[in-house]
Design a protein that fits this description.
This protein is α/β, with parallel strands linked by helices. The chain has four helices and six strands. A six-stranded mixed β-sheet has the order 1-2-3-4-5-6, with helices on both faces. Helix 1 packs parallel to helix 2. The model has no long low-confidence stretch (mean pLDDT 93). Belongs to the anti-sigma-factor antagonist family.
Length: 123
């Protein structure tokens, strides 16, 4: 059963821990306002196992440079823990990520199933 994440008024989400990955489903805005709380919650979750993380951002309405920065930090943290960060994207998120040429580093995926398969392929 997914647990509710205590984020901000503008960013909500759930966390579902499976055998070899954690799935986060996010809705709302990942911006300068929500980024500090998001970073704190995600860092805590990444310190726990498993270290493969899927962020379902298909319902994110807005992503700014603060949000991009925290995604890069989380990807590095997951890699250092021998895990990975997969991001399920939507056109708005994809456009923002491609603008700064981070699409391959942030491992954008079209859906959750593709992200899970990608973890299996790299495990």
């Amino acid at each position: 059963m997914p647990e509710q994440l205590n984020l901000t008024v503008s960013l909500r989400g759930t966390r579902d821990v499976r055998e070899n990955y954690q799935l986060f489903r996010l809705t709302g805005l990942l911006d300068a306002f929500s980024e500090p709380v998001f970073r704190k919650v995600m860092t805590k979750c990444l310190d726990e196992s498993p270290h493969h993380v899927i962020l379902d951002m298909s319902k994110i309405d807005f992503l700014d440079s603060s949000g991009l920065g925290v995604l890069v930090q989380l990807a590095k943290k997951a890699q250092n823990a021998k895990g990975s960060l997969q991001i399920v994207s939507n056109p708005r998120v994809t456009q923002t990520v491609k603008l700064v040429r981070l699409e391959s580093f942030l491992s954008l995926q079209p859906n959750v199933d593709a992200a899970i398969q990608n973890i299996g392929a790299n495990a």
